[in-house]
Amino acid sequence: MSTPPARVYEHLTGTSRRTGRPVREVALEWAHGVDGDWSWWVPSGDIVIAILNPHQDRAPLDDATELAVELMTDPIWPAWVRAALAWRYAVTVRRGYASEPDDEDPDRRAWLTGLLADWDEAEHMVWEEIAWPGPFADDATSQWRPYRLRWFELQERLAAQQVVWCRARLEDPTVRGVELGLVLRRLWDVGELTDQDLLALAPGWRGRFLRQFDSDPFSGLGACVVYGMALAEFGIAAPIFEHIREHRRRWETSVHAPLVGWYGTPEEVDELWERALRPDADPRVVLGATAGRARLEGIPLARACDLAAAEAGRHDPFLRVALAHGGRPRLWARDIDTDPRLGARAAELAVDDSLSEGFRAAAKGLQC
């Protein structure tokens, strides 16, 4: 990152008045003459406002966002402007416009729908070709970091440079804990995780996955659990569960319980099943028990969750496990109600004839 210049709006509009040239022309020339980067989000915003209103440094947010999208997709602007605008307006769009309640005005609804679609394409285009700084970037917008991180977790597709960022973190032996779990999940979700990636993590895996163990605040599952799940589903033999089983007391609920679903013996699954039926069962216990039964009996995870719900006399949390882990991509959010894909996943379960009427009805109640 480099230090951005101040008073860019005043410079652009003043030069325009003095020379009689359009502000857009002045701004484009200036932007190509400086060595900016994605962190110059204030100057990039000044460019937008100067073009829209050369007489006063303010403009309607709707107009500014529309122009930002236009500039982000116009290759005539230098990479730093397009990246800085993507960084500057991401939270405006994702936290602001995307969460607006349905407006009774059909014109407003149509405009919002179009804006969000245009933003998706513009943002993806920017990070396809320009290096992505990542959700943990240390800049002046750090108060927006939680929103950036959450959106990254929920993205259904990743741009090329986002994949590059994830892979670099995966290959960096100093990246551990929450960040390591994040990049594993994201690469796996979008089909970019390979067996070679997983094998490359094997040497020294305990140092990266267990010496700085933290349950992820978003998913509730530590990186070690995600790694174990991926190894099993990729069919890669590894001693990970033997080590966890040997030290079970240390990671009883946080690691051992969920991984029983992918590695546990019938006896271990039965033991976990009894724990999962208790009213205060930890979600990780529920995941391990139901995934284990599904694996051992050769039935879908949703069916195993349905059986558990019938025995327990309640649908939650079994329905949540079926929704989160029964389809692809997984819905990793611990607070799954906040995932915008929940309604569609619930709709799939609601019409699944292999499930009980009560379980399907409970899923139908979550459709939105």
**Parts with pLDDT < 50 across at least 5 consecutive residues:** none
Work out the helix count: 20
Give the tally of structural domains.
3
- How much of the sequence lies in strands comes to under 5%
Overall pLDDT confidence: 94
Description:
- The chain is an all-alpha fold and 368 residues long.
- It has three domains: 8-153, no CATH class; 155-237, no CATH class; 239-368, no CATH class.
- It contains 20 helices and no strands.
- The protein has helices at residues 8-19, 23-32, 41-52, 61-72, 79-96, 106-129, 145-154, 160-171, 177-189, 195-200, 205-209, 223-233, 240-246, 252-263, 266-276, 283-297, 301-312, 318-325, 342-350, 357-364.
- The longest helix is centred in the N-terminal third of the chain and has 24 residues, at 106-129.
- The model has no long low-confidence stretch (mean pLDDT 94).
In short:
The protein is an all-alpha fold and 368 residues long. It contains 20 helices and no strands.
Key terms:
single chain, 3 domains, mainly alpha, 368 residues, elongated
Layout of SSEs?
Blueprint: H1 8-19, H2 23-32, H3 41-52, H4 61-72, H5 79-96, H6 106-129, H7 145-154, H8 160-171, H9 177-189, H10 195-200, H11 205-209, H12 223-233, H13 240-246, H14 252-263, H15 266-276, H16 283-297, H17 301-312, H18 318-325, H19 342-350, H20 357-364
